[in-house]
Amino acid sequence: MFSDFFRKVRGNKTDSKDVAKQRLKFALIYDKLEVSDDTLNSLHRDIMEVISHYFEIDQKAFKLDIRRSDDLSALVINTPILGPKHRERPQADSPG
Amino acid sequence: MTNDEVERCNLEGRTIVITSGKGGVGKTTATACLGAAIALEGKRVVVIDMDIGLRNLDVVMGLENRIIFNIVDAVKGKCKLKQAAIKDRRIDNLFLIPASQSDNKGVLTPKEMVQFGEELRKQFDFVLMDCPAGIERGFENSVAAADEAIVICTPEVASVRDADRVIGLLYARSITPKLVVNRIVPEMVKRGDMLSHLDMVDVLSVELIGLVPMDDQVVISSNTGIPLVLQKRSRAGEAFQRIAMRLNGMTDLPIEVPQAQGHFWKKIGNKLGIGK
């Protein structure tokens, strides 16, 4: 009781539980953005395959990354294009 | 134990897994308490220790020297279900299936557990599974057989984070878990030095089913192996009893928020309007 009283007199400092809550909120957001290696690998494969339908690309130099800053995450793809692909666009109903 | 005591068929039991992700937050205590409390309400209950290799539910319940068979024996068909289910010493309708101490968690598979769960469901009103810490095979096995889940979480950052992870994994298996906040110290919550249950529900976005205060009686109860719900004046025991009632159909029973225990000077202070 007296500690409550003195704190009221002194003016409030931030409650430690509010610090905990804020840290947790951020931690949980970051945890959810974490992508497993398997997911990233299959995403890598799929995107490379789709781009290969349209361009000749250097598959070894193809890079896929998730970049995080304070308030957002971005999927960054970087690939050198060797040239356009000279073939018909795959039909919408064709398998694959 | 006569055969009749365990053998009963065609009940439509509910299978509930008690989990947390993080260890040491009170899963085993909660399982023992809820099992005892629901059994005292007249339902036929089995509690199962899924922590294979590190069994504990048996000592907490004071049944450690009655173990002959265990969960692995029962699942693998080395014994009958009724042989593995140990009848509680004090509470009728309460049974324990202990973990095996010598095997490791890989010995059981989720598929086997689903099948075993079906068998249990026919013979008990409630099947409570004490899930091991972690999210590996032991967790998979426990969740595979369950259709409901209770997540135990203490008001600490590590526990909340792990609870969030486990809640996500449960949702991925189409189970909507309910939250028990355990080991609340009302004085600290009041001072702003402990996450309140409202903070936790806000962070975890999950339905609450009970609030349990920190209580010395929990240690005393596990020392003696006497169920907490049979101890007089155990605040945690009473809280678990109310959770059991909610589980057992009284869904509208209000959730009581643990209050700081009144000290003499505090009461005077409150009267004078100095207290917070």
TrEMBL record, chain A:
UniProt xrefs under Pfam families: MinE
Superkingdom per UniProt: Bacteria
Keyword Plastid tagged: no
GO BP term (any one): regulation of division septum assembly
Cross-referenced InterPro entries: MinE (IPR005527), MinE_sf (IPR036707)
Keyword list, A-Z: Cell cycle, Cell division
Family the entry assigns: Belongs to the MinE family.
Function text: Prevents the cell division inhibition by proteins MinC and MinD at internal division sites while permitting inhibition at polar sites. This ensures cell division at the proper site by restricting the formation of a division septum at the midpoint of the long axis of the cell.
Name of this chain's protein: Cell division topological specificity factor
